[in-house]
Amino acid sequence: xxxxxxxxxxxxxxxxxxxxxxxxxxxxxxxxxxxxxxxxxxxxxxxxxxxxxxxxxxxxxxxxxxxxxxxxxxxxxxxxxxxxxxxxxxxxxxxxxxxxxxxxxxxxxxxxxxxxxxxxxxxxxxxxxxxxxxxxxxxxxxxxxxxxxxxxxxxxxxxxxxxxxxxxxxxxxxxxxxxxxxxxxxxxxxxxxxxxxxxxxxxxxxxxxxxxxxxxxxxxxxxxxxxxxxxxxxxxxxxxxxxxxxxxxxxxxxxxxxxxxxxxxxxxxxxxxxxxxxxxxxxxxxxxxxxxxx
Length: 294
Prior knowledge:
Layout: E1 2-3, E2 10-11, H1 34-38, H2 48-56, H3 65-86, H4 94-125, E3 130-135, H5 138-177, H6 181-214, E4 219-223, E5 226-229, E6 232-235, E7 241-249, E8 255-263, E9 268-276, H7 283-293
Antiparallel strand pairs: 1-2, 3-4, 4-5, 5-6, 7-8, 8-9
Helix pairs in contact: 3-4, 5-6
């Protein structure tokens, strides 16, 4: 349970201000929140209703739980369909049965995985496994979002170029071996349509991603082996994964860079999370705490 630094009263990780004394939980100084002073409240004695109203504006939702619930619903639906087919209540084409079975397995795995992620994220929200937390201001969130946008745009452009070259080669070979002119035209038009769809996705998605990120909550919760950053959950506590490094960065914003690795069925991969910090965060102490916990 997280506690207020001023009165030691219990507070939620979502709270900006202590409901008991009005202490600004984001501030490292022993002072009353400026928010209330600007709104005419008397310093030192703040209405609990006003504090609750302000805290309500900063509600952190568990973003992993809805995905887990949807996956369980799909699992249950596919199970019912397969059971009804087995009992000959309904007749389904064998191909659709195979698809339903794979959807059931996939949904079950996704639900199981995201249930675990939801539990870990909730432990951060409740403060049980929390090392540090803060909220990006508007400027930091824009810098953070623009940095992700540039990275996503560069990656998508490279993938589009590689995919386009492969498609031109593959479709070109098919066209060369097709004798009928109508079939050649059909094949060429098909390739162009696929390239157009890929171009829309490759060049359009980064802008959509940027739009979504700008509307996220801006919360940052750091745990020993997982982190929640502006609506997205990252973890490195599963098998064959772990923390690789963590350091202070000054570009594209002042913050920290967490590098972690994971191993899938093919190779070992490395992911990096660049997170802007605020002035009141003791970055050196934060880095020491994360390293000690790993």
